[in-house]
Write a structure and sequence with these properties.
CATH architecture of the largest domain: 3-Layer(aba) Sandwich
Distance between the termini: 69 Å
CATH class of the largest domain: Alpha Beta
Structural class: alpha/beta
Shape: globular
CATH superfamily of the largest domain: P-loop containing nucleotide triphosphate hydrolases
Order of helices and strands: HHEEEHHEHEEHEEEEHHHHHEHEEH
Largest sheet: 5 strands, parallel
CATH topology of the largest domain: Rossmann fold
């Protein structure tokens, strides 16, 4: 009905003609992907269709120009990020003036009242329809992969799966969209991420992956300080009023002068002291695997192996029953770590319990006490 009203074809003899014309001229045989693009040059959002390729490009405009006052924005960024303000400005320039350029994940830590959420919300308002809150891990439905900015509040700091998801989302060229009651389809990956946490050790990372080169650094980690002095309740709106001009004027100049050569994430990413603390104070993947295994054995015992555990034997086959161990390399890391932590003896032998025989490691008294 809406189609006929908009096309002025409500008369019965005109309906079939209108539908025939629609199918002939506008039919898309298949949709291979939909590209959602932030377009700072557009005053109004629009879309383009390539019927033969099955590609729909949706161009979404940025927040409008209201007040021309670049110094106000730069004073704000300097007050929040100090010496790292130039990095944030470069990050914003790439975010605003390009699509599909990889950018590092911004991880902001610090207590409440430091302005973490305010900054993330300000960035989100540049392309509001391309911004979403996200839990920080993959789920059955992946609405987030169509967005340009994902904001994660209080992420799962001990989740190895989250760390892998962040690396995957920041590295893959395409992502699959899975929506309820719809067939999955593919989009080009345009995702950028801002993670917020009240804790300094705010993300699981593997200690041995601490970056050594600013050209190949995936994370910008920064602890924000408590705001001092009189806090302006209208500060966020004042910034948004001036941001439309700033991103079209100053950030355009910055972007046009960037050199992307040799940089994995488009720009040099400072290796901050906060990032070093994050990596140096994190537990290793092997330790996390071991701690998770102990938790799973006690909370979710596998019946086939319970007799062996009760006798003080640790069957190596038990590892195949836990989904968080998903490759042989992890299994070997876990066994080596259990030996290092003196939880099992060094050699495995075939042991029998009831009717079953498995290769087992003898559990140390330390391991038995932990399980108790």
């Amino acid at each position: 009905m809406k189609f006929h009203i908009l096309t002025n074809t409500e008369a019965k003899n005109e309906k079939s003609k209108a539908f025939r014309n629609l199918i002939k001229r506008k039919h898309i045989p298949h949709i291979s992907r939909i590209d959602y693009l932030g377009d700072i040059n557009m005053d109004k959002s629009n879309y383009q269709i390539k019927p033969r390729d099955g590609i729909i490009k949706v161009h979404l405009s940025a927040l409008p120009v209201q007040i021309k006052d670049n110094r106000f924005i730069e004073r704000y960024l300097k007050s929040i990020f100090g010496k790292h303000a130039p990095f944030i400005i470069e990050w914003l320039s790439v975010y605003c003036h390009s699509n599909y350029n990889k950018l590092p994940t911004i991880l902001l830590t610090g207590s409440r009242g430091t302005g973490k959420s305010t900054f993330a919300e300000i960035v989100g308002e540049i392309f509001p329809s391309l911004t979403t809150d996200w839990y920080g891990h993959e789920s059955d439905f992946t609405y987030e992969v169509e967005k340009k900015l994902l904001i994660v509040e209080e992420n799962e700091k001990s989740s190895m799966n989250q760390y892998k998801t962040l690396k995957k989302y920041s590295g893959q060229k395409y992502a699959q969209v899975k929506k309820k009651f719809k067939d999955p389809y593919r989009v080009k990956n345009n995702m950028n991420m801002i993670l917020l946490s009240n804790e300094l050790i705010s993300l699981f990372v593997t200690r041995d992956e601490l970056p050594t080169d600013m050209k190949n650094n995936q994370f910008f980690v920064f602890e924000m300080k408590k705001l001092t002095g009189n806090i302006d309740p209208n500060m966020q709106q004042n910034i948004l009023d001036r941001l439309g001009w700033y991103i079209r004027d100053e950030l355009r100049k910055i972007y046009n002068n960037l050199d992307f050569t040799g940089k994995r994430y488009s720009i040099n990413v400072p290796i901050t002291e906060d990032e070093k603390k994050l990596f140096n104070n994190s537990i290793s993947e092997a330790d996390l695997l071991t701690d998770t295994l102990i938790e799973q054995i006690t909370l979710h015992p596998v019946d086939d192996f319970k007799e062996f555990i009760d006798l003080g034997y640790f069957p190596s086959s038990l590892l195949d029953h836990y989904i968080f161990i998903n490759n042989p390399g992890q299994k070997n890391k876990l066994i080596r770590n259990m030996k290092k932590r003196k939880l099992i003896e060094s050699q495995s032998e075939k042991k029998q319990a009831g009717r079953n025989r498995y290769y087992c490691y003898e559990m140390t008294e330390k391991f038995k006490e932990i399980l108790k």
